User: Fold this.
Amino acid sequence: MIRKPEPMFERFESMDALAPRPLLDRALAGRAFDVDQIACASAAQIIRKVRLPSNAANLKPRSLSKDLLLRLAVAVICHQINWDFLWSKLASVLDEVEHGPEFLSVVTSRDIETWLAGYHRRERIRAKERAAFLRDVGKVLLEKYSGDPRLLLSRAEGKLYGPGGVMSRLDDFAALHMDPLRKKSNVFIHEIIRDGLASFDDQEKIAPAIDYHIMRLYLRTGRVVPIHNETFNVLKRDVVPRPRFVRLMREAVSEALSLTALYAGMSIPAVNGIEWEIGRDICGRAKPKCNEPVDRKHVLILHDGCGCPYASFCRAYADQAWRELREPELKKSFY
Assistant:
């Protein structure tokens, strides 16, 4: 039986990381979010009619080795920066390089500053951090895989999980094992599965890739419901949340996305990709485009009218208070 939770909205004084710890400890001792299974089922009915156009025609022909290196490099340093911008800049650099891992192993922060020059939020370039992550990619590939990214997959022998599987191998990269939910690793795996670069015997077990666009969409559509009143209110203002608070929320969103995919009869990478586009291009942080015309060069939405396809069940569409919800701000290298 599908269960629809009712927010308990227990009262706690503050979820802010700067608030007194006893109040936060009490609030975060158990669950902070519930999953609305009815909302997940409603989303599933709609998402069956939503699909992403194939990227195959738009991708520049590359060798598998170069393609894997580019995707790994982008996944490793894509946090707090626009994915399309980063992809374009790294592709233009790595496409001209003969020996990619050797090249990355000596990347400097000055290189990053040059490649990403012109980004509209300069403070997010974080050149020193991204350069260190890329150098690590190059060094790991040289030391463990003879500089050939293809060996990362072939040595896994068709396994994503378990000893020797791709996921455990990705943990060798500094930027990928920091996140307890492995968002960046999952992004990389989603990408290569969706675009047909690889398949795995156990890929039905793949986990969602939970980032801020996905979190915001699941909050506003009511698939993830704050249990406590203060939890609800804190998500309407800018605070510095405790990492546990963000982790509890990401875990609930992961559960809800998996449930949505199950009800839709679709793979998690397919649902994850579509909803990431909706979260980014329609359900914007500052101003969601609930009823506005949408540039659908990324998302092909098969429904009448314009705006968000989830409007028929979305809590934020009907309730201004829910429309004010946004993902917590956490300046981590995996978020």
In short: The domain at 58-205 is CATH 1.10.340 (Endonuclease III; domain 1). Residues 243-264 form the longest helix (22 residues). The first strand starts at residue 33 and ends at 35. The chain has two domains: 21-53+208-323, 58-205.
